Structures are given as structure tokens and as C-alpha cells.
Amino acid sequence: MELGGPKGFVLKERAGGCPPLSVTFSPRVLAAQFRERDVLEAVFRFWASGEKGPEAFPMSRLWDSRLRHYLGSRYDARRGVSDWDLHMKLHDRGARVIHIREFRRWRDTGVAFELRDSSAYHVPNRTLASGRLLSHRGERVAARGYWGDIATGPFVAFGIEADDESLLRTSNGQPIKTAGEITQHNVTELFRALTAWGRPRASQGYPMEVLRERDGTREPDPPSQDLLQGTVPASLRGLWV
Description:
This protein is of the alpha+beta class. It has 2 domains: 1-48, no CATH class; 49-236, no CATH class. Helix content is 34%, strand content 14%. The chain has 7 helices and 9 strands, in the order βββααααββαββαββα. It has a 3-stranded antiparallel sheet with strand order 1-2-3. The chain is globular. The termini are far apart. Mean pLDDT is 76; it is low at 1-15, 202-214 and 235-241.
């Protein structure tokens, strides 16, 4: 076995009269692999709160900065812009279940779903952070911030359609359930289906059960692709920025 070479690492080995096996690793490839590993390690450390303090990822300030950049001169009229975006870009395309109050709250604060008291949301979601190279005084510097969706919101993924038709009922032309409540139902059903997948069931009438051809036992169907990918209708695809 020989290790070394002018263009990187060359591994040569002879076994049983076979011809030499040579594998070359370019220094450029190795350097790229090390850089990617270092970047991944930094991301995981950041997610695990390796950097303490609220200034490590000041989500409120970053969200407001993203909103100001998106709205520009319309920032002072952001409440009216929010209502316009909801009615003209979402309601007119079939997502009428999204309530104006929950959409306004998300547009103003970045919090889309509140399952408990709003004061409990004081830890930012660090997985939403991303990096960019920005120009500062003529130099390119790396900056961490939030450059995700600021226009559509996460409601269209699981919050506008449901298998349970009772969740989509209306009263006096208004939906009786919010997109947040429908999202909670759909995500709960998704986790329930994933948990039940592969477990044999004794009941004969369970709608997700199929009969195995080999041993005659029953097992749940795997979750459908529509359920795994969300319930976004074709008219709402392509709205993310």
C-alpha cells in the first residue's frame, strides 16, 4: 500500500495478482469537504444554542428589517398592505379560511400559530436563520439573518384544506375554523398516520388497512404523498418569495 502523490493522495494496493488500484483525492476536493463539514458543525452548534444570549439571533429585529425591506415606502401603511395581500393574493385564490387577524399577526410579528399564551413565545426559531454575503464599505462580509417568506405565510401548507369537511364549514359566509386550527388537525393526523404505519391492526373496518398477500395480516397503508407534501392546491403554488 502506498500513500502519497504530487496531486493529492494516491492509494495503491495489490491483492491476489489484481492490477493496482489507484484513488486520487484532489486537495481542492478535500478542502471543500473540510469547509462543508465546518459549516455544518457551525450550523448545528448554532441550533443547539451554542451562542448564548438574545443577540445571537434577534428575530424580532431581523423580522422587522425584512418587513421594511419588502414593503419599502409602504411600511407605515403595512396594516392596509397586509389586508390587501390577504384578500387579493390568497382569498381570491381559494384560501378564504385564513383569518385576517392571524394573517396580520404573522405579518407583524412572524408568529403564525399560537397554541398557548402568546407570552410563552420568547425563544426564536434558530432553524430559520440563514447566511448571506453582504457588501459593507466595499468589502464582502458574511451576515446571519432571516431572508425567508414575508408575503404568503405558512398557512397554505396544512391550513386551508382538510379531509374532515366539518372543519371547512362556514357561518354567514365566514369560516368557523381558522387556518391555525386546521393546521393543528392536519399535522396531528399526519403524525398519527406515521406512527400507525407498519403496525398490524385487529379491526377489520379501519379505512387505512390493507390485506397482505403473503400472510393474510393487515397493516396500515403508508401515508399518501398528498398528506406528506401538504395540501397546497395548484392555484396557490408559486406564491413564496
